[in-house]
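Tutorial handout. Part one gives the primary structure; part two gives the three-dimensional structure as tokens.
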Amino acid sequence: MDSVVSLRDVRKSYRMGSENLLVLKGINLDIKRGEFISIMGPSGSGKSTLMNLIGLLDRPDSGRLVINERDTGTLNDVELSHLRGKEIGFIFQTFNLVARMTALKNVELPMIFQGKPQAYRSAIAKKYLEEVGLGDRLSHRPNELSGGQRQRVAIARSLVNDPSILLADEPTGNLDAKTGEEIMRLFVDLNKKGRTIVMVTHNPDVAQFSQRIIRLKDGAILEET
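Part two.
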């Protein structure tokens, strides 16, 4: 399997007043195409920063980050934004759905930014809502859906541009245990279909659904299991 994400000696720091806080201290990591990995670690370990770098929401201070054979250090902000829209699908703990829009319209959103025509957007959104088990909820707004259904809408939305990587940030954090397990089984099904999934979680029961667990501590990889 080839790597869809490759980090070499990646470092990242932030200014905190007059201090420079080193958050990531030389991360080396390869994520293979079709892998399902979890990133774990205590608060302040650097897992959110690592997620933001892989999701192209931030740039490393030094080191090399390659996404799907593109060296991100050579790209300007416009190219980086285009690569993010094409290669990365985001799934958040808080769902991040637009309240006034139907499930169908929420799922169409990423395709609007990619300039896809209306008929295409509608057909693809419907296809992925059916794939996550919400074919009968197309015209429902978020407040008419349960937490688990909202997360399924968010997962459908993350899939519509056929990204190389799904990034899931605490995807079960706002769900009860039973619903959370249903969402994790959906991730396992997506992974079996070839989707690469990178998930940040603090929950070891959730992490057990993935194939590999990366544990961070103080900005460095402590172990892989």
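Part three, for discussion. The two ends are 19 Å apart (CA to CA). Residues 35-59+74-224 form a domain with the Rossmann fold fold (CATH 3.40.50.300).
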